[in-house]
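Predict the structure of Penicillin-binding protein.
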Amino acid sequence: MAAPVVSGAGLAAKSVATTFQQLPPAPREEPLSQVTRLLDRDGKPFAQFYQANRRAIPLSRVAPVMRQAIVAIEDARFYEHGGMDVRGTLRALLTNTSAGGIRQGGSSLTQQLVKNILVESARTEEERDRARAPNLARKLTELRLALAMEQKYSKDEILERYLNIAYFGAGAHGVEAAARRFFSTTAADLTLPQAATLAGAVRMPYSTDPSIGPAQRARLKERRDLVLDRMAELRLVGVREAAAAKRSPLGIRLRPEPGGCAQSRYPYYCVYVQRELLTNEAFGATARERRARLATGGLVIRTALDPVAQRAAEKAIRARVDARDTEVAAEAMVEPRSGRIRAMAASKDFGRNPGDRKNGTRTTFNLVADMAHGGGMGLQAGSTFKAFTLATALQQGWRFDQGFQTPGVLVPSQGYRDCRGRAVNAPSVRVHNASGEGEGGPYSLSTGTWKSVNIFYMMLERKVGLCNVVRTARALGIARADGRPLREVPTFTLGVNEMDPVTVAAAFAAFAARGRYCRPQAIVEITGRDGRTAHVRPTCEQALDRKVADAVNHVLQGVFDKGTMTGQGIGRPAAGKTGTNNGYTSAWFAGYTPELAAAVSVGDIRGSYRYPLRGVEIGGEYYGSVQGASLPGPIWVASMESALRDTPAGDFHPADMSRFGGGFTPGLKEAEEAEQIRQMLHRQRQWLRWARRHGHQLWPPGGDVLGTPGERRPRFSGRTGVAPMGPGMAVSGAGEPGAAMPQAVVPGAVPPVTTGR
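Done. Here is the predicted structure for Penicillin-binding protein.
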């Protein structure tokens, strides 16, 4: 009876017997293609990669009603036959012929499993076509392999494999992905109508795809009702229960299953992780192998991404820089003592612009990272590099108050050698102090840092040795964003090298960690499809003497209360360095607390040299020039305040004053006293102009508030009465470049004076 059904009328019975007695081995089973997911530090997914949207699960995690539904409609005698159900095939043939269409499956579940295995494991299109070919030879091979599968596996093992490999439509491979995609639930929680719907979709996954439109949903409901009727016929459910299920709506709740970084919630972080995996030979010997593993491996990759810090960075940037601006801001947050990247954010959305336009609200460059992690050329880091010269000087025994006289202009024509010992002087270059730094004068290690004095640091770099500064920077992980060697030139300390925020943040995190540098790390652990987890340990080394790092922290804390960031603190111990390039080609701020480090960069995406940050409107605000303290600084402050709001504030380790305290700078004391007088007179002039503009009268008539310290100060009277103008009174907002004139006189408010970068 079997011979004419399975092999054709012309095949002899003896040949049939031989064909099905001498069976081949079961088909080779490649690991099923599964989704690789990226999780944040709290275990919540934020991105996924897949060639096929599938999550393989054991049969125990499939609802019993789902198992019954698929067997009922596809192979009712599955648990009775040995892989080739002749009686079931004949019955399906008669049923389908009389109905004029496919109502019951003619192949056993084992045969269908074999077909799916052959298609899934095909390495070429030719092999895939052979596995699907509608001819007798393919059917015969499929039957023989099905019998071999029945000898190798139990019935439940075969059913488990089938439910994981079958395609249900709407991009869902396997019952778990289908349950999530169709109903936003799991295979374990499927109800009778839902299970019948999925079972009905397997036979016609394309024409019943609910994501396409109403016609497909109507066909899917017909298939669902057919499954319910068949289950009632087999007495797997009651007639009334089946009828009630048929009256219920489909209840499709399509769950989006975005794939790739462009559809990720945190795309820049996703790109960083993706590039880390695709370029790391530990993840696979070849690039092709690494890509395949990422797309099909079913891995669970836990990252260091902190949603709180990530949202803080995104909010701070978007409040000040619009995605439509050609100027872009980017920020990276790195955890000291581990190097774990807590956040990566940028002002533009990730992806392609409409029509693939170059300029728009989107970009395909990872603006936060280096070129190896999907970034671009980077931006010159500016005066943030002075921190490495500072660390080098402290390592060589310089003290906080030690310094020297500086000229108003410097030509680096001698004294600079790179790490090969070659002279790299630049006699044709003239270095000036940035606006607000004056025409030179005496500066110490502390004051030269707080005011970010270019010429002081050029001279300091020459004294401590250019190569020594370069070595310090390299030890702290500094490398160009484009992967090329660092430019070892006299202006190294002024940040002539193009950098990315991740690299700079990790370097500054080493200061917070008392000199312990940790390579930036995004991946914390990887769990394979077998359930085994590999933990990724931080890669760290002591790059800087602990006490030197403490001394750097001591000086850089002064940037917030005595230097370029005066008045922009975050209410807890913090240290940092502004960075503005000559010509305003880019602007930076890099800073840190004992708990977290961050770096913010701002530049024009069209090219920082062609489009400097002068006379620009960013985020609806006009900037005559963008400096480190005017835009990157406020972004850093806002993001750090929010990121650390639930983290107890810690203190930096105190500096060793016996080693670093003291020192002498000729003329510094006198210059500071003169500067105090100039600032006082400047504030008095501002107050005088404000008072006259608002109708106040000076007393005595014709009197002048200007004077010298120790003199009796005149008083003024007006509509608001008489008030003294003494040392404890100042005009609010005075001293801030570009600030509007104050609306009131505030007792006790001594305004900051921004003088550097």
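The two ends are 93 Å apart (CA to CA).
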